[in-house]
Amino acid sequence: MVKKDHTPSTEVSLGPLKLKNPVVTASGTFGYGAEYAKFYDLSRLGGITVKGLSMKPIPGNPPPRICETPSGMLNAIGLQNVGVDEFINKKLPFLAQYDIKVIANIFGNTVEEYEAVAARLDRADGVHALEVNISCPNVKKGGMAFGVDPDSTYEVLKAVRQVTGKPVIAKLSPNVTSVVPFAEKAAEAGVDALSLINTLLGMAIDIRTRKPKLANITGGLSGPAIRPVAIRIIWQVHRAVGLPIIGMGGIMDASDAVEFMLAGATAVAVGTANFVNPTAAADIADGIKNYLGENKIEDINQIIGQVQA
Amino acid sequence: MLTTVKSNEKVVPGFFEMEIEAKGLAKHAGPGQFFMLKVAFGTDPLLRRPLSIHRITSPDSLRFLYRESGRGTSILSKLVPGDQLDALGPLGNGFKVGKTVKHALIVGGGIGVAPLLCLTDHIAKERPDITPVVFIGGRDKDSVMCLDQFKELGIETHIRTEDGSIHKKGLITHSLEEYIDKYKKDGTGGWAIFSCGPTPMLRSVAAIANMNDIKCFTSLEAHMACGIGACLGCVIPLLDREHETQVYRKVCEDGPVFDSEEVLW
Fold this sequence. Notes:
Strand order of the largest sheet of chain A: 3-16-15-10-9-8-7-4
Low-confidence stretches of chain B: none
Shape of chain A: globular
Helix content of chain B: 10-25%
Oligomer: heterodimer
Largest interface: A-B, 32 and 26 residues
Number of helices of chain B: 5
Distance between the termini of chain B: 36 Å
Order of helices and strands of chain B: EEEEEEHEEHEHEEHEHEEEE
Structural class of chain A: alpha/beta
Structural class of chain B: alpha/beta
Strand order of the largest sheet of chain B: 4-3-7-1-2-6-5
Distance between the termini of chain A: 32 Å
Largest sheet of chain B: 7 strands, antiparallel
Radius of gyration of chain A: 18 Å
Strand content of chain A: 15-25%
């Protein structure tokens, strides 16, 4: 047993955004929070990132939208969401009862739309940070188009930066040769942190019907299958750019989370694991605390980027 | 919750029936609801598999009837009594037998019969005033199942096979139409159809219900990742009657049982 006065410190800072523990949820895997509040007290988490928000509601892609792959899954949901106003009026108040940071993921088709959503959320009490999605692989615009061109990346992040005083996190695409130049552009635009990585673009075919398994043809690959790719990108970006990183990509348990932090992540986001085990994110938060206690690490910040490479 | 496999046996080639047990497992379960099963520990296969409740055998135990149709169900079929199985549920909105229902026509095709036995059990227990009539169709003799169980419940059962290898040859929807034509002269008020099976059958059942002014509730299937309304992977297009537009609804949370008039077949 770790004595109370030796309880390890789990607080981390993503620039101005302080989290009481490093575990948040990945956007698009946690609804607007209420879906999981049936299973545990959300206050066990450091924060939650809600489903991506746009100015107007979006119906999303036609089904089938998901398919399983080895140790992973492909999805092409198509950013279905209730729209920013409905989120603020109907979904956000529920989250006020929890001691967590609420990160609102945003996207748009144009720089102006990103700006407008950000401005709306800037005025919303109970939203503690904005995560800018410039990396969704499943819609033609509204994401990856901005995320695979460094100048567009800069332009959209700068625009969001200028309309909000809240912490801004850039969620970057892994579907580029090197993420480092994009991370540098994001830093230049003045963001406070990076989310790495979004899903990898993938595809699967039903050999009986010879049709793609997703109606959208291609989709985003997530789950443990992409974990080594995420670790590699986080390590590369952490060495090159000074910004704090929320690491994500197939984290299933506390050991995985520690691996991400050793690679250079300041916080971690649990995504696909929420689908498999509804309490996964909270279990991981507890597991990290146990890891620190068992290894007599007083402060979680001592492990960030400590891979001996 | 972690459950224990009590039995897991082949019913006919390709189809299995499994009973699992855990304290309080079935306490809040109803017909048409489902469980998400983690068929193996580890990350491959990664996702849980949705299986509808076939029979509630006690507050602590229930049965699934399932077809071995892929990797997940193949692994499931190899579990033996005493094995542990992680089951999440009961989930979804199941079959509701409203107070106004006086006569229930229950139509199943192939493995679609699985949740319907649970429904007839429920009616026998909760609504003894209703005498349901069951219609079971399948490709061949191995795919018309649960006939003995319906017989034990004393339920009138109509059976059709597409190849005529057993019982009358033909589609079960024809049998349903014949029945309705024979008895509808006194009106179909208070009649309801409950259906589960392949989509072409469900579509046809919905059309028959519509033509005869009978309420029809249909249980749908979809690939799903979470089963709890978060992933938005299992949506189907429904008719939003208020706005007369198409809207995506989640099979896991809004269904799996839907009013067939709302389904955009």
